[in-house]
Specification:
Layout (H helix, E strand, L loop, with lengths): L11 E3 L2 H10 L3 E4 L15 E3 L5 H6 L4
Parallel strand pairs: 1-2, 2-3
Length: 66
C-alpha cells in the first residue's frame, strides 16, 4: 500500500516499541523520539535514528539516505 501511495521515501516516527516494531515489520526505516510515551530508555527501541526534540527532525531527514 505504501508503494501504491507513492511512499518510496517513507520514515516512521514513533515513541513506543510497537511503533518501531511495526515500522521494522513493514520494512520502513524508523525514528524514535525520546519525548513521548516511553516505558524505558529510548535506545532500547533500537530505531534507525533517535531525536530528542522536534527541531532535530528536519536536519535528520535532509541527511537521510535516499
Amino acid at each position: 500500500m505504501i508503494e501504491r501511495a507513492g511512499g518510496g521515501h517513507t520514515i516512521f516516527i514513533g515513541d513506543t516499541i510497537n511503533d518501531i516494531a511495526g515500522a521494522r515489520n513493514a520494512g520502513i526505516p524508523s525514528v524514535a523520539v525520546s519525548f513521548g510515551f516511553l516505558d524505558g530508555p529510548v535506545e532500547e527501541l533500537q530505531a534507525d535514528a533517535i531525536i530528542h526534540h522536534f527541531d532535530e527532525l528536519l536536519p535528520l531527514l535532509q541527511g537521510w539516505p535516499q
